[in-house]
Amino acid sequence: MPATTRLKRYLQSFALSRAASPAELQPLGQVYPDPEPISVEGRKCMPTILVVDDEELVRKWVAIAISSFGRYEVLEAGDAQSAFQIAAECPIDLLLSDCVMQGPMSGPDLARKVTASRKHVKVILMSGYEGNDHLQLEQGWRFLQKPFLPAALRAMIMEVLGERPKAPAVNTLGTRGI
User: Fold this and answer.
1) Which residues, in sequence order, are bridge partners of residue 156?
2) Of 121, 125, 132, 141, which has the fewest Cβ atoms less than 10 A away?
3) Can you give the CATH number for the domain in which 81 is found?
4) pLDDT band at 31 (very low <50, low <70, confident <90, very high)
5) What is the pLDDT of residue 39?
C-alpha cells in the first residue's frame, strides 16, 4: 500500500476517533454544499489553494483534507521561499500558511509578499502555538488555530472564498488533532 494511502487512512481514522459531535462524522458534502466552480473567461476553474507548512505530516494532512472536499486544486510548499516561487508562477486564490516556519520568512511575511503583487489572493494563517494574540492580521486575513477538524477547515475556506457566510465559532479539537 502506498505511503500516501496509509497516511490518508490513518488521518481519516484519527479525525473520526476525535470528532467532537455526530455532525462532524457526516460526510463533508452533506454538512456543507459543494462550492460552484469559478467562471473565468467562459470556462469553469476550480479555486487553487497553496498549502504551506514546514511540518510535512501536517502539510500532507491539510492537503489531503482539502483534496477530499472535491472542489479545489491544491499546491504544496514546505517553506516560504518555495511557496513564494510557486505563487509567482501559478495562479492561486488562497494562501493557507503556517505562521512559524524554519527559514528567514514567516507565514505572515510570506502572505504580505504574495499579496503585495497579487491583491486578489486570500489568506488564512494557521498555528499550533498558543498566544497568537500578537499576530497582526491584515485586512481580510483569517486565523485558524491548530489542531482543527476538516469540517472547520472547509468552513473557513468556503467563508474566505465567499462560498458560505460564516465559519463555525468552534473550530478546534482542544488539545488533540494535527
Assistant:
1) none
2) 132
3) 3.40.50.2300
4) very low
5) 47
Give the relative orientation of helices 3-17 and 56-68 as an angle to the nearest 10 degrees.
80
What is the arithmetic mean of pLDDT over 145-164? 91
Torsion of CA 161, 166, 168, 169, to 10 degrees: 110
Using the CB atoms, write b or e for 121-154: b if 16+ within 10 Å.
bbbbbbbbeeeeeeeeeeeebbebbbbbbbbbbb
Whole-structure pTM value: 0.70
- pLDDT, greater one: 75 or 19: 75
- Closest CA relative to residue 155, chosen from 170, 136, 133, 175: 170
The answer to whether 157 and 123 have CB atoms below 8 angstroms apart is no
Domain range for 58: 3-21+39-160
Is residue 52 included in any domain, yes or no? yes
